[in-house]
Design goal:
CATH architecture: Alpha-Beta Complex
Largest sheet: 11 strands, mixed
CATH superfamily: Cysteine proteinases
Number of domains: 1
Order of helices and strands: HEHHHHHEEHEEEHEEEHHEEEHEH
CATH topology: Cathepsin B, Chain A
CATH class: Alpha Beta
Helix content: 25-40%
Number of strands: 13
Structural class: alpha+beta
Distance between the termini: 44 Å
Strand content: 15-25%
Oligomer: single chain
Length: 383
């Protein structure tokens, strides 16, 4: 069987299974009707790593390739992660350690790394050179930070000229050496020429947020610890962010979604992310569980509520996911279909349903194609 035909069959099966799912979990009374759904590649598993930003952004890019009529690729998350480890290390040392150094990142990390270094298929660079079938970075992350802290301590009163070589050698051991050239489906590529092959232009994508501590229709550096690249987002009123989200999905584009998932209402196991009108506080476990079985009225989200949550650290930049559609429950409440990167071990096959209220309240930023932004908003942003 040709690879291209196999990929189409896999995608059809993966897409079809989720399309038939009309509830969040067994025994639930939620019934969802699809409004719009975008084709995606199969769910992946970041496992025990903090690399959701790479998985979600590449899933978003893979759907973009499908939208453009390209053969659906399976892109290497660890190729991007490896490059960010190198660039982050250099910045961490130059900042004398006064920078968040960890596995976390942002959507623009991916687009910036693709622009600078290219991309490769997963089959070319899996990044699992340490004898495991799944990604596990606990040991690697601790070793890398320990090395850098030792460099910054500067006990020789002068940084050695080889610390970067030593650091990169650790990455080679754990993740594997970078492929400078590779053969894929009978053709030779470099990481940069493969970007041309899949037709990806990183400049087509922008990040959007909505916070009132910066002027609307301007851009600003999003103040979250994992924004080590100091990337900017475009700032719009909440109503406009909602319009951008919906227009992107309805026009067939996906949305990369950065959000707080530490809320009581976020449950991958239950396939739901909800913000009930009634406060969670004071509820016992049994009362909370009922909200994941029976549909409830969602909280009305305002600009002020969003801002308060962000200002008080209640809304943090925890996790990156990929929004791939819109559904409605039997009460006409809207939800976004969300593709996660925690494997397929829930009733929705690795997806979940996030209520419109949850998304509007807990989004730190989204990444969208510029063409998916409504023209009147795009004009105000001077895009």
């Amino acid at each position: 069987m040709k690879k291209s035909l196999f990929i189409v069959i896999v995608l059809t099966i993966s897409f079809g299974v989720f399309a038939q799912t009309n509830t969040n979990k067994e025994g639930s009374n939620y019934t969802f009707t699809t409004v719009k759904e975008i084709e995606t590649t199969p769910v992946q598993n970041q496992n025990r790593t903090g690399t959701c930003w790479s998985f979600s952004t590449l899933s978003f890019i893979e759907s973009e390739m499908i939208r453009k009529g390209k053969e659906a690729p399976n892109l290497s998350e660890m190729f991007i992660v490896r490059h960010t480890y190198l660039e982050k290390a250099d910045k961490y040392v130059r900042m004398h350690g006064n920078l968040n150094f960890g596995a976390g990142g942002a959507f623009h990390d991916v687009t910036e790394m693709v622009k600078k270094y290219g991309i490769v298929p997963e089959s070319v660079y899996a990044g699992k050179n340490y004898g495991e079938d799944e990604h596990k970075h606990g040991e690697l992350d601790a070793i890398l930070k320990g090395m850098l802290d030792a460099v910054i301590a500067n006990k020789n009163k002068k940084l050695t000229p080889v610390w970067k070589e030593a650091y990169e050698a650790v990455l080679d051991v754990y993740l594997g050496e970078f492929p400078k050239e590779f053969t894929y489906e009978g053709k030779k590529y470099t990481p940069k020429s493969y970007v041309e092959q899949i037709g990806f232009n990183a400049d087509d994508f922008v990040e959007i947020s909505s916070f009132s501590h910066h002027p609307f229709y301007s851009n600003f550096m999003l103040e979250v610890p994992d924004n080590w690249l100091s990337g900017n987002v475009y700032n719009v009123p909440l109503a406009d962010m909602a319009k951008i989200l919906d227009n992107s999905i309805n026009e067939g584009y996906g949305v990369a979604w950065a959000s707080d998932v530490s809320e009581k209402g976020f449950s991958f196991r239950d396939g739901l992310a909800i913000i009930p009108e009634n406060n969670w506080e004071g509820m016992n476990k049994e009362e909370r569980e009922k909200y994941f079985i029976d549909p409830v009225k969602q909280m009305v989200i305002t600009q002020e509520l969003r801002q308060e949550g962000f200002d008080n650290y209640e809304t943090q930049d925890d996790h990156g996911m990929h929004i791939t559609g819109i559904v409605k429950d039997q009460n006409d409440t809207r939800y976004y279909i969300v593709k996660n990167s925690w494997g397929d071990g829930n009733h929705c096959g690795g997806f979940l349903y996030a209520s419109e209220a949850y998304v509007l309240y807990k989004t730190t930023c989204i990444m969208v194609h510029k063409d998916a932004i409504p023209k009147d908003i795009r004009k105000k942003l001077k895009l």
